[in-house]
Amino acid sequence: MSSPPAAPTPGRASEGPRSDAPSRSGRRQPRSSSRPRGPPTGSTPGMQSEAGGFPDDEVVGLRGMRRQAPGARDVPRVVDTTAETLGIQFERFLENFTEDPTSSAAPMSSAVTTNKYYIAQIHGLCQFKLSTLYVDYTHLMDHERGVLASAIQGDFYRFLPYMLRALNNLIAKYEPQYYREHRQPGSTTARTDTSLAGNSMNEDDSINDKTPNQQTDKIFAIAFYNLALVSRVRQLRTEHVGKLASISGTVTRTSEVRPELHLATFVCEVCNTVVPDVEQIFKYSEPTQCPNLTCGNRQGWRLDIRQSTFIDWQKVRIQENSSEIPTGSMPRTMDVILRGEMVDRAKAGEKCIFTGTLIVVPDVSQFRVPGTRVQAMRDSDAPRGGDVGGSGVSGLAALGVRDLTYRMAFLANMVTPDTSTQGQSANQALKGQAGNILSSLGQMVDLNEVSGDQAQQDYLDTLTPAEIDDLRRMVQQPNIYMRLVDSLAPMIYGHTVVKKGLLLQLMGGVSKVTPEGMALRGDLNICIVGDPSTSKSQFLKYICSFLPRTVYTSGKASSAAGLTAAVVKDEETGEFTIEAGALMLADNGICAIDEFDKMDIADQVAIHEAMEQQTISIAKAGIQATLNARTSILAAANPVGGRYNRKTTLRANINMSAPIMSRFDLFFVVLDECNEQVDEHLARHIVAIHQLKDDAVQPEYSTEQLQRYIRFARLFQPVFTEEAKVDLVKNYQALRSDDAGGSVGRNSYRITVRQLESLIRLSEAVAKANCVDQVTPAFVEEAYKLLKQSIISVEKDDVEFEEDEDAAMADADADAGAAAVDDHNDESPMGGDEGAEEESGSVRASQTPARTPAPARPRTQIKHEDYVKIQTKLLRRVYDDQNIAEDGTEEEDLLLWYLEEMEDELLTQEDVESQRSLAKKVLKKTVKDNILLPIRGEGLAEEGAEAEQRGEKTMYVIQPNFPIEEFLGLARGYKVFIFDIDEAELEHTTKVHLKKYFDAQKLNYAICNLRDPDEIRQKVDEAAKFLNGKIDVLVNNGGIASPKWKDGKTMENGETMAEWQAYVETNLTGPFAVSQACIPYMKVEGAEHSIDHDSDSDAGPCIIHIGSFRAHQSDPNQEGYASTKAGMLGLMHSMAISLQPQSIRVNLVAPGRIKVAHESREGDEKGTSWASLNGANDVEDHPTNRAGRPKDIADAVEYLVNAGFVTGQEIIVDGGATKKK
Questions:
Q1: Which of 195, 1028, 1054, 1122 could form a disulfide with 1110 if both were Cys (CB 3.0 to 4.6 A apart)?
Q2: Range 227-365+401-426 classified under CATH 2.40.50.140
Q3: Has residue 812 got a pLDDT over 50?
Q4: Which residues fall in a compositionally biased region of kind Polar residues (predicted)?
Q5: pLDDT reading at 356 higher than 90
Q6: pTM exceeds cut of 0.90
Q7: 592 near 553, Cβ under 8 Å?
Q8: C-alpha neighbours within 13 Å on the C-beta side of residue 428
Q9: Chain mean pLDDT for the chain
Q10: CA dihedral 895, 900, 905, 906 (to 10 degrees)
């Protein structure tokens, strides 16, 4: 019988086409072409007949062969009796081992079932068309006191062929059909044809005599897992070569999956003899000599690819885990070789355990040292020379260093997740026969990609009953959200708001895909900004230890390529490949970036795409790819200058660009404020931790409980309720209004649409934290509060007021004058000496004492918030008075009104005087800030006290250029939808005249024929959709504006009947149809109830018809126009009564003669002004001495919109024209 390969010998490896692993010193002797092919990697029991069974322990001999010529064939074969015995024992173990049924799941097979653990797996191999048997090493340890386990672990590489033979025997015994289909040897009688496929079958051969596809035949393999000891990469030494071991590391690079030639079939180029099943041991290996006794060929071989067997091959590079790197050391790396069903099991960024054996491979990169040329040479008696000598490639021989052209690699037969890492996903745990096959191969569905009850049930199936009960108890506990927050990062004192944000980041929102295929991220990005020593880095370290798939990096030490992806050249193949950066390694996890503000701006730009689209695009070195980076960013940054300045914006405090700031969902500003009570509690907490360590904190939930709960909660896919949607819109509007509040409501950063998306994600995360399937208004409110708390309001310097400058100067002059008089009297006792006045200037200057400097004026200081509060009160009063009377507000009246408003806070006369003085100073500063304009007499107020001495009153008005409505928050946020029949005029009106009143997103229009009720209903539905399903105000201004019949006709002309119909359908039927279509979107449900709340006094929805004063006063030939406008008056009266149950008010505005040509397209093109449109008759016919403007109608409409107690009324806006006639 043939001898199995011997143990690996590092010193004998030679370079070949596939030099990824070492060669072995021994090799199975090539078999004759007349010998049937047996199972791979060792002698497998033969067959009595090629279609028969597999008798146990029968080995096909080499009978019938002629005596070979003396030489290499006469070398006796050595039988490894120890390995033979171990193979027999291992086969018995696999065949007879049974496990307690309660300790593992039942096999997922409807075929043959058995209580024999590994026999059930063999049946599973057949059912699922797999080729790897998974052996639990703990089973071997329990078998015969672990003798078999110790032998396998101590010399794994030596015994592996014999264990594979045992596996082939069992598969052939229990699943013969499956074995015949994939590993059945066929008849390979030597051919003499010249064809390359010299071992092709005859047509009458049995179909069972060959496999369906020789190139993809199953190569059965054994995978061990659950070894007691998991070694570190740094601990591996040459003493571990050939031994069974497990190593743990983080995958940093994976190669593409390539086919590897495993069993080769060669054809002798001399005699066409076929040599099958030549095992390829890490390199391309040809037969040493043709087995044909009449042929001595040693070199002329051709590979028969169709009759050779290939398996999948992949190389993975791992790096030792960050927690295992000694201080000051570089991380060690190692190449791991995966084959068969193990390929693509490890992804970049994952922490995995690889089980296999350590091997030695040639270091190909050392063969490419510049300046030397390495080539293989045969032994020869000729003198050896060359620049590298005849001893092969060597190191620094002069320094005693021998061959350095080899390195260690790891040949893995099993890949499992590193469950020793906290929070590692348990859905790939190996449980039961079916679990060993399916989950270990990664064929179980990723729970993150399955939504609903199925994903939750799949996860619960991986937990023990005790863990399920504990999880159920946590879900049912009240206020679970805050309980989770209190249990998160217990070693860090306080910072509850930050912990809330981190919990929601761990939960994440719901990822969505638009109908166009655009992905909307659900992950949250958080940035912690704060003073030094405020636990920023501790939060990052905690999250990295809490989650399995996290990457911790520093912004200053990270480049753009290190964060995203780099294109590198493979040192062996020379091809360009992509090496994953930190964001790719943290895919489906969290990337923690410390010192984010120290990162170069150019490097920050590189992660823009990854933060929002969660992809990384590469276009380098001929590689164009878009890679996934579905990660959350947790960043920490220090303020500029070391301390956070609350008197400036967040943008000015940190070194970040505006685009990257907008991509963060939450900013947490952690300040180191001096607080005696807080400092005491913090000091006690830190001292207790140093004294008692873990016993100092006792959170309600342990880390394992939190990990299980978060893993379960992430499987929920909550959706918004209708009420939650309404609250979401309101909260976003509140954030935007605060952001647009001018100098009063300045926030730390601008609120954009991305903050609305952040609000959505945060609300979904809160729902997940509560393990519910719906996002309720309470969850939206919690998310809004969190987002609001993360927006640090900008603090302003305290406002200082000086005493009145004129009064202070007057006092100083008086004091200086008195001092001068005293000095003069002292020098001239006689006084009135006129001669003194005639002295020279120089003498006088020397005798006059220097003027005493004016003393510093006292200052009054108040907080900026108090200043804004007083200023707002005063400005609002001035604004209201100015709307009533354009004269403004007198200063004394304004101060008196303010004191009356503050009456409850003023207890003494001193308080009254102090508050009056403060209010006056606020008024003067407001004047200096160009907000108020003081007026005295006929013009602007004079500086100084002269005007006051003349007794003139000061009036205050608002500066014309100051946006007072925006400052006071009085601007209304209307959204407008307009119907018209003239598209060109409508577009001009909206884009020119209405642009200054409305944002482009708040204004829309549509072409509508008011004589078509069906089109009206369609356009109203479109408008309601634009207005978020609610219409508050309807203004029926459409109609035929021409008051007289066309072409000077009278009603006697029969052609006017068509015009009459047009007037009725447009001016009367149109408003009725539009109102009818809008009522469903305007009505207030439950409007008929008793008044029991202040909100019942709100104006509510209203309909305003635009009629005409021609309903009361007509000129000749206006029958059509005047009748329809009078009809609108009756329509308004009736609708006001009919729509009372819907709480819709109905009123009418009757314009007079309104000049509108200056606001038309033609008027703008000609530069027409409103004043030029007024003629002499306009002044004569109107008591107001002018015609009307469009704004006059708008003011009346606005009044009716806000007049909640007015309905069924007509307002005539005609400048008094109807009264004059």
A1: 1122
A2: yes
A3: no
A4: 185-201
A5: yes
A6: no
A7: yes
A8: 20
A9: 74
A10: 70
Cα–Cα distance, 291 to 34 (Å, whole number) = 10
Neighbours of 471 (CB within 10 A): 20
* Residue 242 per-residue DSSP state: T
Question: Which helix or strand (DSSP H or E) is residue 611 part of?
Answer: helix 608-612
Location of structure tokens 């399916």: 438
Fold held by 1036-1044+1064-1086+1098-1219: Rossmann fold (3.40.50)
686 vs 247: CA distance, rounded Å: 37
Per-residue pLDDT tens over the stretch 985-1019: 777 777 776 765 565 667 788 888 888 888 898 88
- Rounded to a whole number of angstroms, the distance between the first and last alpha carbons of the chain is 131
For residue 696 the two structure tokens come to 């100092």
Dihedral sign computed on CA atoms, order 106, 107, 110, 116: negative
Do the Cβ atoms of 690 and 677 come closer than 8 Å? no
| pLDDT at position 102 | 42
- Using CA atoms, how far residue 958 sits from 188, 864, 883, 884, 1185, in Å, is 106, 21, 11, 13, 27
CA distance 213 to 225: 31
Give which of 747, 972, 974, 742 is closest to 875, Cα–Cα: 742
The dihedrals phi and psi of 577, each to the nearest 5 degrees, come to -130, 165
Q: How many whole angstroms separate alpha carbon 574 and alpha carbon 571?
A: 6
> What's the full length of the chain, in residues?
1221
Closest CA to 897 of 880, 917, 927, 874: 874
DSSP result, 913-982:
HHHHHHHHHHHHHHHHTTSEEEEETTEEPPSSSHHHHTTPPEEEEE-TTS-HHHHHT------EEEEES-
DSSP letter at 238? G
Level-2 CATH architecture, domain 83-98+113-182? 2-Layer Sandwich (3.30)
In percent, the amount of the chain with pLDDT more than 70 equals 71
Maximum mean pLDDT: which of 366-370, 808-812, 1089-1093, 1215-1219: 1215-1219
Are the CB atoms for 58 and 45 separated by under 8 Å?
yes
The amino acid occupying position 946 is: E
Spell out the domain ranges in the chain. Answer: 83-98+113-182, 227-365+401-426, 864-935, 1036-1044+1064-1086+1098-1219
CA–CA dist 1213, 1221 (Å, integer): 15
More confidently predicted of 1023 and 432: 1023
In 3D space, the residue among 3, 22, 1 whose CA is nearest the CA of residue 12 turns out to be 22
Q: What DSSP state is assigned to residue 1208?
A: S
Cβ pair 663, 611 in contact under 8 A:
yes
Look up tokens 């309104």; give the residue.
1154
Cα 537 from Cα 64, distance rounded (Å): 77
**Residue 886 neighbours by CB distance under 10 Å:** 8
